[in-house]
Amino acid sequence: MTSIAATTARGKTDDALRQRDFPARFNSMDAGFRAEIARELGISEAVLVAMASLSLTAEGLDRILGLLDLDTRELERQAPALVADLRRSCAMCRDWKDCAIDLDAGALAGDARHYCVNRLALLRLLAGRAPQAAAAPR
User: How far apart are CA 56 and CA 91, in angstroms?
Assistant: First the structure.
């Protein structure tokens, strides 16, 4: 493995470990500190707690687009608002762990479509019809 590839792999591993560690760190914060964070973000504590369990990354979307042979850069050029909506929905998805498992297996399982918040928009893209907006996050 080249040093660039090793550095990239190490970075992805570190990111994954931090991501898995975040819920434990979040849960260990005292209630006053979590309330202060929620106030600063302008959201309720309940929303902050829900966000802590999410992936908050759209890495899965890029991997899905690749599996579907859709050119991410071309799609971003042609429909930047659509891609932004797809990324936002993906980042807020509650099923990111199932998605990551399916993607790590090299493909989306046939039943994966039932949990993908972007499934309808992706199906429209595959059919050649770009939708105006992506599915809303659950």
Answer: 4
Condensed to tens digits (0 to 9), the pLDDT of residues 23-45 reads 677 778 888 998 998 898 888 88
Ramachandran bin of 56, using left for φ above 0, alpha for ψ from -120 to 50, beta for the remaining angles? left
Task: List the domain boundaries for the chain.
Answer: 3-52, 59-126
Give residue-wise pLDDT tens across range 82-103.
998 898 888 888 888 888 888 8
Residues near 130 by beta carbon (within 8 Å), at least 6 away in sequence? 78, 79, 82, 124
d(C-alpha 68, C-alpha 73), whole Å = 14
Q: Which helix (H) or strand (E) holds 19?
A: helix 3-28
Q: Please list the helix, strand and coil fractions of the chain in percent, rounded to the nearest 5, in that order.
A: 70, 0, 30
Task: Identify residue 91 by its one-letter amino acid code.
Answer: A
Q: Can you give the pTM of this predicted structure? A: 0.57
